[in-house]
Design goal:
This protein is of the alpha+beta class and 427 residues long. Strands 1-5-6-11-10-9-7-8 form an 8-stranded mixed beta sheet. A 5-stranded mixed beta sheet has the order 13-12-14-15-16, with helices on both faces. A 3-stranded antiparallel beta sheet has the order 2-4-3, with helices on one face. Helix 1 crosses helix 11. The protein binds histidyl-adenosine monophosphate.
Amino acid sequence: MDLSSPRGTIDIYGEDIDYRNYIINTAREILEIFNYAEIITPAFEYTQVFSRSIGENTDIVSKQMYTFPDKKGRLLTLRPEGTASIVRAILENKMYSEKLPLKLFYIGNMFRYEKPQKGRMREFWQLGIESIGSDNPIIDAEAIWILNLFFEKLGFKKLALKVNNIGCRKCRKKFLEEFKKYLRPEKNKLCSDCRKRFKENPLRIFDCKKIDCTEVLKGSPDISYYLCSECKKNFEEVLKCLKILDIKYRIDKNLVRGFDYYTGTIFEIISEDLESAQNALGGGGRYDNLISDMGGADIPATGFAVGIDRTIILMKQLNIDLKKSDKKSKVYLIAMDKISQIYSTLILKYLREKEVVCDMNFNIRSLKKEITWARDNGYNFIIIVGEDEMKTGNLTMKDINKFKQYKVDWKNDKEKIIEIIGAQNID
Ligand code: HAM
């Protein structure tokens, strides 16, 4: 019997939890300022929610979905992304009848049956935004602005923001005709996947990293020449806004992204530091037809998602420290014997009522071992409790990083503990 975790999944614990909370808190702070409200949707949906929105011929739907029948034979799928679920929720709860635009954000685990490697997992966490109900290019720029600001606030330096416009359905159709015309004589030079894509989803050939395919693409028609006047104007306005906001970007005409629902402006933020091939930290774009394709009114929308796991990997790789303000003083009580342990609960009660992060040793070990343990586990103060301390009420409190020692009269002046912590609190 195999009791290990399934391939492509991880347990998140220890310092990764600190990173994760830091990332999520940073996002929450920004999203509050930008007026986004949280939404939580189920981790699984009826399969058609994803197959209809993401596209039957995309890699995600054709190869990567965890799909299974429930006990009544209904097909369910673990969500591979958040956008389709959010649109389903908006339609089902008639949220569109509220004032538009609707600005929502979500944090959730996603599931894709991929070949696992560093930064690419089968269960991973995303943080995303969806902005529903406006076709104003300023809202595209706002999404890009948030994405950029988020990584800047986390402390990233070498990031590249790529933008492109893949046109609306009308202008993309014209481009695809020309693109196929161009590719037809070169078809045999393409890899087997791209030969299939040529038939089913030619735009995705731009995503292929194989040298033969990128060579073929070098002389390909450029989608920007095929944009209708409205798409062109919208894209220009997005870029103008980015300039005003002083956001550095790079137009990448090969950026297409892997979902059929995209229209118009799309974007991706990549790390030029991430060693692995999985260097896309986040991406998104406009999806003006998705809501009507899923049975709703003709409502435009845009959004993006960020990979939390990849962000953690990169922050650690780049030695980006978590801001100290997140670190509170922590106190560890070291009781020398069983009776002192019971006495220590009184001190814990006092400290916890004062909202001090604290704990005590539940196993009796040597003082040296306990101090090492406290240091390794992020405590900065210890308080020693033994027979003498219980008798006299005089506690010894130590700052284990600064090697300072204090005497505290527990019976008559317990507030001194809080004073010491307050003076030393890391902020
Ligand atoms: P996506 O580009 O597929 O977009 O995913 C967004 C981010 O999720 C990626 O940039 C990456 O950081 C992370 N990610 C994706 N797959 C994996 C994986 N297998 N393991 C670890 N991290 C991964 C979307 O999902 C769209 N729904 C974004 C969107 C929202 N577009 C409009 N609104």
